[in-house]
Design a protein that fits this description.
alpha+beta
Length: 606
């Protein structure tokens, strides 16, 4: 066999760019395996997903990057990883890239010695970003590999030799992770983040040697160390929420941020600097952490994941259910009902100025109304981002034979179309999308009907019949205390708003049978508006023999209580009427003080 004498004596911008893209292909292919073996720092089964999402952002940005110099590509790589970093391992990898870019400086090309210096600096930078580095994790694999690169770089000027020889040390370090971390040893797996880093290196080396990205995408000899799935996985999660955000400030630094956030939780990683950081922490108080950071600078792109839910989804041994229900976050129901019935939520987006939140994920309704009162910016609501929808569906689709998605009206939002487009990824009829034609507690009543039908083990056709009946026979009446927020949201003109303010008009609105928001009346003053709302609801409810009510309020619990008392004067004196805080998607336009009264009627009187 002819010996391959090819040598690579430098890495320029083009070569680095393509090598990183090739490396990401192996990470993408290995995503599910990484998720399966993820038991540290929390067994939430998402390391592969997080690394894949991090590298997706890197891939997208590098495709557009200039490859004139290794300096340009390194900066673009660091910036992309900072924006896209997800989870513990994604944040560490992002800081590694950030440190690498710092060390590269303004160089056009890298020799093996320059490369070794850069990865040494990157190793130190990644370690410094962590509040409590733990040996036996990705940081150990990075460190051992970087040290091997430094040693070998003194003996060769050939990158193929350098990378292939140092790779053996990375694989050995990965293999040794269970000996350094008891939780890995007990589970019988290697560290998932370390495994992901080794896979990234394998793709990079394959490209450097072969010179083709598409070959890396089909490269099948990537390393899997340890078992394919863990055993003895603990469900002891001390800090429940994986909390992340981008933070910008002038007069701060990493050490100061580490001190300020130290008492909030663990697994803290602060990436970037000196003025822009990506912060990752596991905490039980994500909103308090965001609020603290907002006193020092500007928080954007907040993200909160419930790791206990992720753990149950990844490691609990449960049978695949026949049907599951998905809603968008405009649906309002009591939290215990949502949790006990496994109702899954797709978040709409809320934006205050430059700050964007995933509704009910990154900001609660209560926090939204507080921010609505304090913020100089009037918020805007927008449909869910396709990436969010796809990620949520990816997580839950394995648990069900079919999903039923009950969504915001097509007449007022693009949410239905975004979800339906995402549903095409899973095959025909795997996800059935239903236009709810209403919002808030009224959608909640439709969901309750769907859950009851599923519990009765009815076939899909009959479940959909009951849902469609509920859509057509659910009615909502909304009392809006002022026209101010309808003006700010662009729903009515400023001149009409001024007239309404002078006359103290409080409008009443509803959704028609096409799912459009329509005015249904007006009153002078808030109390008269509430009375008129109840009167209209009672008159409509009397058309049915049976009815189920729900009350939703926008930071107005006393009004909601009064409304419940009034309904009990006419119907259901002994039965429980749920009271929920109204979705911010409606609160953006109705404003604080609004109250919604909805009912589902059955068996129309002749």
């Amino acid at each position: 066999m002819k010996k391959n004498n090819k040598k690579i004596h430098y890495i320029d911008g083009a070569r680095l760019k393509r090598a990183i893209i090739a490396g990401s292909q192996i990470v993408f292919r290995n995503k599910e395996h990484l998720n399966k073996i993820n038991v540290f720092p929390v067994p939430d089964g998402d390391t592969g997903t997080n690394l894949a999402l991090t590298m997706t952002q890197v891939n997208e940005d590098l495709q557009q990057s200039s490859d004139r110099s290794v300096s340009d590509v390194s900066r673009d790589l660091a910036d992309a990883a900072l924006r896209g970093a997800q989870g513990n391992s994604g944040a560490i990898l992002a800081q590694f890239f950030h440190g690498f870019a710092e060390a590269v400086g303004g160089r056009v090309k890298l020799t093996t010695k320059h490369f070794a210096e850069a990865v040494q600096h990157a190793k130190k930078s990644a370690r410094e970003a962590m509040s409590e580095p733990r040996e036996g994790t990705i940081i150990t694999v990075i460190s051992d590999w970087a040290n091997s690169v430094e040693n070998i770089a003194h003996k060769t000027d050939d990158f193929i030799e350098l990378l292939k020889n140092s790779m053996s040390r990375a694989k050995q370090a990965l293999k040794e992770t269970p000996q350094k971390l008891d939780v890995l040893k007990k589970a019988g797996v290697v560290d998932a983040g370390g495994q992901g880093f080794v896979n990234l290196l394998e793709g990079i080396i394959h490209f450097i040697e072969k010179g083709k990205i598409k070959d890396a995408a089909h490269y099948s000899s990537f390393t899997k160390s340890g078992a394919d799935s863990p055993r003895n996985v603990s469900d002891d999660i001390r800090f429940r929420y994986c909390t992340e955000c981008v933070f910008e400030a002038v007069n701060t630094d990493r050490k100061k941020l580490q001190r300020i956030l130290a008492d909030f939780g663990d697994s803290m990683i602060i990436v970037g600097g000196p003025k822009k950081f990506r912060i990752h922490i596991h905490t039980n108080y994500p909103q308090k952490a965001f609020k603290t950071l907002n006193t020092l600078g500007v928080v954007t792109s907040p993200k909160v994941d419930d790791m206990k839910k992720q753990h149950r989804r990844s490691f609990s041994k449960k049978k695949i259910k026949k049907f599951g229900v998905v809603v968008d976050s405009s649906c309002d129901l009591p939290e215990d009902f949502l949790v006990s019935n496994d109702v899954h939520i797709i978040p709409v987006r809320l934006t205050f100025g430059e700050q964007t939140y995933r509704d009910k994920f990154d900001i609660t309704p209560e926090e939204f109304y507080q921010k609505l009162a304090e913020s100089p910016f009037h918020p805007k609501s927008s449909q869910p981002v396709y990436k969010d929808v796809k990620q949520i569906l990816d997580e839950i689709i394995p648990d069900y034979e079919q999903l039923i998605a009950i969504l915001l009206p097509r007449a007022v939002s693009g949410t239905f179309q975004v979800v339906r487009n995402a549903a095409k990824n899973y095959g025909e009829d795997k996800i059935v999308c239903v236009d709810g034609k209403t919002i808030s507690g009224a959608t909640g009543l439709i969901v309750m009907e769907a859950i009851e039908a599923i519990k009765q083990e009815l076939p899909l056709e009959q479940i959909l019949e009951k849902i469609n009946y509920a859509v057509e026979n659910t009615h909502i009446f909304i009392s809006v205390p002022t026209l101010e927020y309808l003006v700010k949201g662009g729903r009515i003109s400023a001149s009409k708003g001024l007239l309404g303010k002078i006359l103290r008009l409080s409008p009443l609105v509803s959704f028609n049978n096409e799912g459009k928001l329509v005015p249904i009346g007006k009153a002078f003053g808030e109390q008269n508006s509430l009375k008129k709302m109840v009167k209209m609801a009672v008159e409509k409810a009397e058309e049915y023999e049976e009815r189920r009510f729900i009350v939703a309020h926008a930071n107005a619990p006393e009004k909601a209580k009064w409304t419940v008392e009034q309904i009990r004067r006419f119907f259901m004196p002994e039965e429980h009427i749920p009271v929920v805080t109204v979705t911010p998607a409606l609160g953006v336009h109705a404003g604080p003080g609004a109250v919604g009264l909805a009912f589902l009627g059955k068996n129309k009187k002749s």
